[in-house]
Specification:
Helix content: 40-55%
Bound molecules: phenylalanine
Oligomer: single chain
């Protein structure tokens, strides 16, 4: 029986030696160390198996052997835990090094763009009118001559219908030359009260130069209700001009002619540069023209389903490029379409 005891004691020592050797090989590899724990101290580990063999010992030898095995188990566990802690530290060091951030390096700057000056002006004007209760309407850029001309009281043979002034797609389909056909579309869809604006692109066969472009933008305005007068038009445009050009801005209505408004006018604002005294910006006039307007012609109301005996209205058409050029002192309309970043970046 004492043979069995010494055999087991030897085996115990061997386990410790083997463990030491394997631990050395595992180094500071946490995974290898965990595997070692399973191999020696786990349920099927060599130390556990050895302890199970204690049944073969005499009852008197068992406590001796048990004590020795427990001592070894504690030693191995302590060693293993020490190694594993070291391994974790080492791994963390490596990770910290790899993930180190140098907060003193300059950041990566994503260059910020800006909205196009035309978009900015359209947004500003839209905000002013929506603030006065106007809704934003839209219509197609490819339009019927009926909506662009006929129903706006522009009869066949009118010079603006000539091929030199209008892009024709077919005899009765064109690229709209103005945003006014949206007036027609809105009136045909809804009864008063109507208060809409319509920003959009329009087309005319003009040769590009400093003040002309075959494609440009307008913002149409239309208000129809009972008892609307020229005074409402003047007051609305006064408010608009003050908000866009500054609180001291004055407006001036000059008689003009548009087929679809009666009476019609062109509207000037006091020069935002000189305040009305006369300077190069206003070409000495003191005023600068900003839009066309007038009272909607009763014929136009009637043709588009609104009773002119019950209702009246005003309309206006703002030239967006002209407004942008005035606001930002741009001297050539082509700058607005040339995609020149050096020019566009001024509007950040
Ligand atoms: N449609 C006109 C133009 O293009 C402008 C305008 C709109 C005038 C509404 C009066 C009323 O010149």
């Amino acid at each position: 029986m004492s043979d069995t005891l010494s055999e087991m004691q030897e085996a115990l020592q061997q386990i410790q030696l083997d463990f030491e050797a394997e631990a050395k090989q595992a180094g500071l590899n946490a995974l290898a160390l965990e595997n070692l724990r399973v191999a020696y101290l786990g349920k099927k580990g060599s130390l556990t198996l050895l302890l199970r063999g204690m049944g073969k010992l005499d009852a008197a030898q068992r406590p001796l052997m048990g004590q020795a095995a427990n001592d070894i188990r504690q030693t191995l566990e302590a060693e293993l835990n020490g190694y594993i802690t070291q391994a974790r530290h080492a791994e963390q060091e490596i990770r910290l090094e790899a993930e180190a951030i140098d907060v003193t390096l300059p950041g990566q700057v994503t260059p910020l763009g800006c909205r196009h000056p035309l978009t900015q002006v359209i947004d500003q004007i839209t905000r002013i009118f929506t603030g006065m209760g106007y809704a934003v309407a839209a219509g197609p850029e490819v339009e019927y001559t009926r909506y662009n001309f006929d129903l706006l009281h522009i009869p066949e043979g009118h010079p603006s219908r000539d091929v030199t002034d209008t892009f024709y797609i077919t005899d009765d389909i064109i690229l709209r030359t103005q945003t006014s056909p949206v007036q027609v579309r809105v009136m045909r869809q809804q009864q008063p009260p109507i208060k809409i604006i319509c920003p959009g692109m329009v087309y005319r066969p003009d040769t590009p130069d400093a003040t002309h472009s075959p494609v440009f933008h307008q913002i149409e305005g239309l208000a129809v209700d009972r008892g609307i007068t020229m005074g409402d038009l003047a007051g609305t445009l006064q408010l608009y001009a003050r908000q866009l050009f500054g609180a001291d801005t004055k407006i001036r209505l000059r008689p003009h002619h548009f087929p679809f408004t009666e009476p019609s006018c062109e509207v000037d604002v006091s020069c935002w540069n000189c305040g009305g005294a006369g300077c190069p910006t206003c070409k000495g006039e003191g005023y600068v023209e900003i839009l066309g307007a007038g009272m909607v012609h009763p014929w136009v109301l009637e043709q588009n389903g609104i009773d002119p005996h019950e209702y009246s209205g005003f309309a206006f058409g703002i030239g967006v490029e002209r407004t942008a050029m005035a606001r930002y002192k741009i001297d050539d309309i082509r700058n607005l379409y040339s995609n020149n970043l050096q020019f566009l970046e001024q509007f950040k």
